[in-house]
Model the fold of this input.
Amino acid sequence: MQRVVVSALALVLGTPLGAFGASPGVRSNAAACKTLIDAFPAHSLHSEETVAGAQPWCDRTTSTNREYFILGLHSDRRCDYICSSLVGWFAVERTTGRVFEWDINEDVVGRLRWDGHTWSN
Done:
């Protein structure tokens, strides 16, 4: 009930929900990818082996996980030979936007990497 009241109040006042301490969450793969790219340290996503205009991007899975969006993060690296731009696999929590490592082999969440404020190495 409290969340409904806060949501209605935010709507009337035109105030983002985050201002009341409630997280709006992440609602799509595209939003989860943006959250991940925005949170990740920029120096790790921009390679010297890239072409102008190249951007980091995400692989999306067909996972039906209800708690997380599972994404493979790629840098903006482009090359003319065999290479990979994969930085790693991550889980973006749907309710909070927090970013965790994702163990793609075991299909389980790993350690917290982004808490909404700080990236941990």
